[in-house]
Amino acid sequence: MRILLVDDDELLTQQLADFLVSQHYAVDVVLDGEAGWDYAQAADYDLIVLDINLPKLDGIRLCQKLRQARYGNPILLLTAQGDSSDKVVGLDAGADDYLVKPCTLNELSARIRALLRRPSTLKNPVLRSGDLCIDPSTCEVTYQGKLLSLSPKEYSLLELFLRRPQQVFSSTSILEHLWSFDDTPAEETVRTHIKRLRHKLKAVGAGTVIDTVYGMGYRLQPPLATP
């Protein structure tokens, strides 16, 4: 999952970014609203975190601009102001949630997880494909109850496929979803991660979970129908 973090507090922003990376997210960081707008147009972010008081283009106006441009994924507003009127203005601008700084990293992480699972059934946030399960709240992957040990990128790759089971992802698209602009490797890296993930899935008996669609990319193989 890829997150854009827009906040002019460099120290806080770096702390938040480091924490989110440790939680298996790819994170891009910018320090003003205009740069936030440019980044949001250049990549497909699963969630955007905005501070309200941004230079060049404030967070409320940026939020409105994103919604007018039909950005449909969650937006989380951060602010040092706890006034309820600010919350109303932010939510009316199109934000999905609102968090007052200072906040704990665990609270931020919980809000992000809640926003990212909203499109699915809230009562059952676990992602499933047959006997393969991912629990985003714990970052655990199991197959028939057996726990898999995956690297952060392998986990993020599998989560991407399970969240969008009908979609074919090119190597370029996978790079855009799972790596930040400052850390974008060659497409061969995607093939290497796919190969390692397939090997680990087959080792627990899951078989071929990820299909290669020649000339296009990769997709999740639909689970076999139960007779």
Quick recap:
The chain is an alpha/beta fold. Helix content is 40%, strand content 20%. The strands form three sheets. Strands 2-1-3-4-5 form a five-stranded parallel beta sheet, sandwiched between helices. Strands 6-7-8-9 form a four-stranded antiparallel beta sheet, with helices on one face. A two-stranded antiparallel sheet has the order 10-11.
Main attributes of the structure:
alpha/beta; Arc Repressor Mutant, subunit A; Rossmann fold; five-stranded parallel sheet; 227 residues; 2 domains; four-stranded antiparallel sheet
Average predicted confidence as pLDDT: 84
Structural domains: how many: 2
Give the strand tally: 11
Give me the CATH fold name of the largest domain.
Rossmann fold
CATH architecture of the largest domain: 3-Layer(aba) Sandwich
Structural class computed from helices and strand pairing? alpha/beta
The strands making up the biggest β-sheet line up spatially as 2-1-3-4-5
In whole angstroms, the N-to-C terminal distance is 34 Å
- The best one-word shape is elongated
Give the H and E element order. Answer: EHEHEHEHEHEEEEHHHEE
Sheet having the most strands: 5 strands, parallel
Structure description:
Helices cover 40% and strands 20% of the residues. By secondary structure, it is of the alpha/beta class. It folds into two domains: 2-116, 3-Layer(aba) Sandwich (Rossmann fold); 127-220, Arc Repressor Mutant, subunit A, CATH 1.10.10. The chain has a five-stranded parallel beta sheet, sandwiched between helices. Strands 6-7-8-9 form a four-stranded antiparallel beta sheet, covered by helices on one side. Helix 6 (152-163) packs across helix 8 (187-203) and helix 7 (171-178) packs across helix 8. It is elongated, with a radius of gyration of 18 Å. The chain starts with a strand and ends in a 7-residue tail after the last strand. Residues 120-124 have low confidence and may be disordered.
